[in-house]
Structures are given as C-alpha cells and as structure tokens.
Amino acid sequence: MASGLRTVEVRMGQFRASRDAEVALETSSLGSCVAVALYDPEARVAGLCHILLDRESRFPGGVPERCADFAIPAALAEMVTLGASPERVVAHLAGGGNMFRGVTDPVYDVGSWNVAAAKEVLEALGIPVVTEDVGGSNPRRLRIEVATGHTSVHFPAGRGGA
C-alpha cells in the first residue's frame, strides 16, 4: 500500500469512480460480495464496485446499485465522464466467497452467482478480466490506486488466502 494516498472506502452496494491521483479506492470487507475494480491506464481513471447481488431482475424493488448488472455499467459510465475510454478499461475481481463453510447446496453459494454475473456483464461490455482472487471462504478487501491502477487484495490477520 502506497503511503500518502487518501483511501476512499466503497461499502456494500456502492460504486465509485475517480481520476484523483492522490486516492486509492478500497472495499469494505468482502464475503460473498464481489468487488470489480475497473481501470483505464491511459486516462488513469479507476472505478470500484462492491456488488452484493447478481442481477437486479431477481430482486425487484431492491436497490439496483447492489447488483452486478446495474453497478458495473453505471461505474463505467461515471468513469467515461471522467475521461476513460471503455475500449481501454480492464477489470480486476476479488471476493465471491462461500461464507457458509461445509454447506454444499448451490442455492447458498451466493458468491459464485455474483462472480458469474460480474464476468457476464464484463464480457458483454468487452472488458477483459486481468486478475482475480475469488471463491474460497475467507473475507478479503480489494484496493486500487488511481494513479497507477495497482490492485492489492488484503486478508484479515491470520486468515490467509482463499
């Protein structure tokens, strides 16, 4: 983590975009939620989504910002207003864990649904996924530095990787 950067926390169901070189965007803790970090390396514009649910259509009347199919295009649109070009944007994924250890019924594997939905949306938008740290059963946080696009995944002390 670079020193001197101001961290902007992106909480569950939120997305943010920035071109401020003094900022790093970072999710709050991810369990079954998935983080999608977007970056345009030429414009140096970053976006970060903290996705709670896969598809808005499955949760009518809910908060659309929490869903992959709404949040990712909305974050990309916000990035474009800051100078990003969709053709240059790449994505990094983290989270999407199965937080119900020992439960194998796929109906409870919300994390897998979230990861699959995020990848489908990114593919439809033509955005390649360049790194991912998904699955498992450990919580984590994703951070992206706006100036460089450097991403890092952090695990709570003693929890290790997925």
UniProtKB/TrEMBL annotation:
For whether the record's keyword set contains Hydrolase, the answer is: yes
GO biological processes: chemotaxis
| Keyword Transmembrane part of the UniProt annotation | no
Q: What is its EC number?
A: 3.5.1.44
Keywords linked to the UniProt accession: Chemotaxis, Hydrolase
One Pfam annotation reads: CheD
Which terms in the Gene Ontology molecular function aspect does this entry carry? protein-glutamine glutaminase activity
The EC category is hydrolase
Give the catalysed reaction(s), semicolon-separated: L-glutaminyl-[protein] + H2O = L-glutamyl-[protein] + NH4(+)
Protein family according to the UniProt entry: Belongs to the CheD family.
Function of the protein: Probably deamidates glutamine residues to glutamate on methyl-accepting chemotaxis receptors (MCPs), playing an important role in chemotaxis.
Q: What is this protein called?
A: Probable chemoreceptor glutamine deamidase CheD
Give the source species.
Caldinitratiruptor microaerophilus
Q: What is the lineage of its organism?
A: Bacteria, Bacillati, Bacillota, Clostridia, Eubacteriales
